[in-house]
Amino acid sequence: MDKKKEYKEKAKILALQNGFDQVSYYGEWKGYLVYTASRKEDKECCIGYPQFILVKDDAAHLAPYTQSPDIMGMAPMPKDYTSSFL
Length: 86
Fold this sequence. Notes:
Strand content: 25-35%
Strand order of the largest sheet: 1-2-3-4
Number of domains: 1
Largest sheet: 4 strands, antiparallel
Number of strands: 4
Order of helices and strands: HEEEEH
Number of helices: 2
Low-confidence stretches: none
C-alpha cells in the first residue's frame, strides 16, 4: 500500500478519536507526513492554527499548537520556548 494512503488511514483513526471527522494531506515536515484534522460542521469557521496530525514510522500523534508556525513554514519556534499559545 502507498505510504501516503496508509498514513492517512492512521491519521483518520486518530482524528476520530479526538473529535474530528475529516483529514487532509498537508505536506511533509521533518520526516513526517502531515495532515490537518477538522470537522465538517466547522467548514465556514476558521479560528487559529489548524490541528496537525504527524505520522511517521506507522505512528500518528497530534502536533502541539506550538509547532504549528514551524510546520506551516512561518517561523521556527525557539528551542528553549516553553510557554503555550492561548
